[in-house]
Amino acid sequence: MNPKPQSQTVLVVGGGIGGISAALEAAETGCEVVLIEKGPSLGGRVAALNRYFPKMCHPTCGLEINFQRIKRNPRLKVFTMSEVTAITGGPGNFKATIVTRPRYVKPNCTACGDCAKVATSEVADAFNYGLGTVKAAYLPHAMAFPMRYVLAPEVAGTPEGQSIKAACKVGAIDLDEQPTHFDLSVGAVIWATGWQPYPATNLTAYRYDALADVITNVEMERLAAHDGPTKGQILRRSDGTPAKKVALIQCAGSRDLNHLPYCSRICCLASMKHALYVREQHPDAQVDIYYIDIRAHDKLEAFYRKLKADGQVRWLKSKPARIEPGADGRPVVCGENTLTREVYAEPYDLVVLATGMQPSAKPPMETAMDDYGFVVGHEGGVIGAGVATGPLDVSMSVQSATAAALGAVQAVRR
Amino acid sequence: MDKKTGAYLCQGCGLGDALDIAALEKVAKAEFKLPVIKTHACLCGDEGVALIKADLEAGAVTLPVIGACSPRVMTDRFQFPNAQVLRANLREQVIWSHPAGDEDTQMLAEDMLRMAFTQATKLNAPTPWKEGEFATTLLVVGGGYAGLTAANEAVKAGHDVLLVEKSAQLGGSARGWTKVVPSDPPYREPQDNPLPALVAKVEANKAIRVARNATVTKTAGMPGKFQIELSDGSTHLVGAIVLATGSRPYDATKLGHLGYGASPDVITNVELEIKLASGKVTTKNGQAPKTVAFIQCAGSRDPAHLPYCSSVCCSVSLKQAIQLAKADPQTMVYIVYEEMRTPGQAEEFYRAAQDAGVIFMKGKANKVANGAGLTVTVADELLGQEVPLGPLDLVVLATGMVPNSTDVDAPAQEYGAELLNPDINPYPAADESYKPAPIVPTGGPILNLQYRQGPHLPMLADGFADSHYICFPYETRRTGIYACGPVRRPMDMAETADDARGAVLKAIQVIANAAEGASVHPRVGDLSYPKIGLSACTKCRRCTVECPFGAIDETEQDYPVVNPTRCRRCGTCMGACPVRTIAFDNYSVDMLSSMVKAVNIPDEFDEKPRILVIACENDAYPALDMAGIARHQYSAFVRILPVRCLGSMNLLLINDALSGGYDGVVLMGCKPGDDYQCHFVKGSAMAKERLSKIAETLKSMQLEPERVTMVEASIADSARLPKVIDELVATFDTIGPNPFKGL
């Protein structure tokens, strides 16, 4: 028999949809839960998605419900700007060290926005994948939870920082904030750190760096979002004109031994969603989907059929060899069609690379992982949840997170 | 203790500059005669919070009404032990959405407070329903991989389990398999079947009571108190139910075009498993096959058969092909496929099959002929023509899965049969080329629910059980009953195990919450529940029919009876009731109606129309908040009334608004239908349905039908809704003032 757990608290690392779901499900089953998020607000990758396949509904809708659940639940504590730097021990008796980076804005911030009014410099807008800039004092986005501003570290020690501080009527700016450490005793650790997009710059033949109108799938989400850098208009990065002829390139990195050997699962479906974004904006738009296999798994086949019914969407079985700059500046997708054996060189207004997902963080303790860096199994260590365990869509991530919550409940109830 | 409402008005975030706070105080004092009225420069700061806290502790106030920011923010600051709190949204929905120092902005702020102060008079602290004993045992239906995993995991979380299996033995459809698709790194080799060990574990576990050769003949009651009757006559009390009835293979006799039935050497993937388990794969001649072809999507992804992809067949064929190729490297093994679907880490298994010498042909297998050996005609996509593949010794049809959402061996029941032919259909009607007929499962109910709405668990038009949510995959329309495994979605064994764990978590969660009288998702922790005043009830049955969760049954005298722990607190019953006799302690038609009437309606010569916006608090209301955050401006003539769900909107509210002089009423709710976004599944659909019947009422009042309209709103509509509101205000303006104004 295992010894009694020393702590009944559950630590959840990662505040995306997986971590939020795991934390809530555990807390709503009676556990004390601490949720740690690296960024300034919860929501992770899904907060930056425009819509979900296949229902084409908005991720913020489910996030709102989840944030309401968090606000109502006294058993769940959230720490943003925080990371776990060390974990020791085992189930029932873990010790975790957490580091909180300065936000320079204290919890008494009312989100009134006076600080942003006086900020003069701009920093890259992380929420929009750097497609635009924000003021150096900013609200991460309109749905941010917690609803609190952030001060970019770049201005903390500058005269601008001082004027921002002076503008805050409630004294919420603390320019001298330092990183803080604290230790937690917990009975279970759920690792839900999710994914990051595979770097498109690694795919040199696709010239993502050089060609403004070659973008990634996550950037496409922001272009299509009403609160994105183009207010939802899918515009070419080069000249701001509407993108009406669009190529969507599947397996940009995935299923490739030189990059990601596995299939990232969601890209086919995400690209179909992107085809819908474009088609909804322009009745005359043409979308070409370059693919190896269309992986609309299980019931998502319905979504594929929906797109197949649209004559303006073409399906080309081919992994393009390269993208070249055209004479008119438009990107030209080059390769050979696997079915027809035709060699093509097709110019487009916009090319979207369906880059895959790779795990974003490794647990700071010995953990069973596969060769790709995904957490597998959880006997004796942290419990993986969501995309930290493999490429999953949102629904499967929530399923995985709910299962992980059970693992945590079992560990602390023992 | 007497209710003492206090008004706390914040002057921070520009409120003090944009609004005449003294005039707001006057509303609280002169109109509502509140005993405590305070203002503060920053109410959410330590000092402001302490101010409220001190009044609460001194007993000067029992119910603070805070006129400041949106109730969606600063919730932690304005939470006080044992006290309810009301918020008037003066920041996001007043000063951030309307010009500062403006007469109409001020009138809006004053009305917001009137609505909140009025709400306070109607608000009571909910008393949770905790009658009698609550059970903690889980019922798991189905003794296959999903059910066994669920039972085993529930015990690990400290719960007893009643496991019901229809057949004579545990293990389910994968029981006899020798090897399964790999789920462990390096994902290249078929793995040992985990079932035998799991069956042994479950059988040895004293906390799991196994009923074999048994079905569920009755499920009555509610979460925490389900009364179960089994076919062996035994009765049990359980707290929650995990439905793990799995799937069955698609009926291969319907695949005659693929040669099934024409030759004993055309077999299904399930039949091949049996041969593999016997250790001897032979053809009718008793020889080991030298040439084998697997045909993928045999029935799946085919509008004449199964519209969906069965998800596991690609990997299962890869596994079987590898097993055959490894058994005899001389065997030629072909896989005829249209799309190879090995998502995630399973891609490695696809590579392993290629390395093992399996030959892949991309194309659709159109027919299988039986002559000198078998021949598969493949519409080869690479060559663009029909290609014969043969002669073959063995053809394996990769048949898909059909969910066991009903008990195929039980007689069908007429009552509640509409739940088997449901209206939530994920397949687009627009596509003429791919129009699958809805799958209406045959047979009888599995749980035999003794519910007013019938014995079945509601399902989707593709035959799978709920849910159709992306964010909340376990939320079925029958609280406390959670489906997992292939009855919910085609999935492989590894995913099934994960899914079973998830369903168990939800089951033990509902057990914990039911015992506290608390709601589960999405209004988690809500202690209120609907109470029905039977003296006024006309037995119209609208509440029992419309509840999205089947929470209300009927007595023998046809009176409605609420099962509190089935209830999800959306208020759809309250919206449905024609005589306003259904109310929650803290939410009622009377409360909403009083709030509507609390607004000052200027007379028609003031040229200040009033428009009532009844907004879903989950989506439309946050969108309006975010409109404020983005400083999008819209008409200050609207008065926004948040509701738990548009389903709780009672038509009498519209009556009250129009007879009270409002010039128009706008309902803002979530998308209904196949891709519903309503968090209570059917709430906004019910509101839409009710609204279609308002024309008569308006006619009798001699009012224009355009005065009442419904707007589909999503949470991402923060830029759109202000425009929609302004357009509607313009429309109401052209209709002219409401003749009831000032009467």
C-alpha geometry of chain B: elongated
Mean pLDDT of chain B: 95
Tally of helical segments of chain B: 19
| Radius of gyration of CA atoms of chain B, rounded to a whole number | 31 Å
Radius of gyration of chain A: 23 Å
Describe the structure.
The complex is a heterodimer of chains A (414) and B (743). Helices cover 24% and strands 25% of the residues of chain A. By secondary structure, chain A is of the alpha/beta class. Chain A folds into 3 domains: 9-101 and 179-194 and 360-413, 3-Layer(bba) Sandwich (FAD/NAD(P)-binding domain); 114-167, no CATH class; 199-356, FAD/NAD(P)-binding domain (3-Layer(bba) Sandwich). In chain A, a hairpin with an 8-residue loop joins β6 (122-124) and β7 (133-135). The radius of gyration of chain A is 23 Å and the shape is globular. In chain A, 60% of the residues are buried. The model of chain A has no long low-confidence stretch (mean pLDDT 96). Chain B folds into 5 domains: 1-123, Rossmann fold; 138-246 and 404-515, FAD/NAD(P)-binding domain, CATH 3.50.50.60; 252-401, 3-Layer(bba) Sandwich (FAD/NAD(P)-binding domain), CATH 3.50.50; 531-576, Alpha-Beta Plaits, CATH 3.30.70.20; 586-743, Rossmann fold (3-Layer(aba) Sandwich), CATH 3.40.50. Helices cover 27% and strands 21% of the residues of chain B. In chain B, a hairpin with a 5-residue loop joins β25 (552-554) and β26 (560-562). Chain B starts with a strand and ends in an 8-residue tail after the last helix. The model of chain B has no long low-confidence stretch (mean pLDDT 95). In chain B, α2 (21-31) runs parallel beside α5 (103-122) and α8 (269-278) packs parallel to α9. With 743 residues, chain B is an alpha/beta fold. The chains are: A alpha/beta (414), B alpha/beta (743). Chains A and B meet through α1, α3, α9 and α10 of A and α10, α11 and α15 of B.
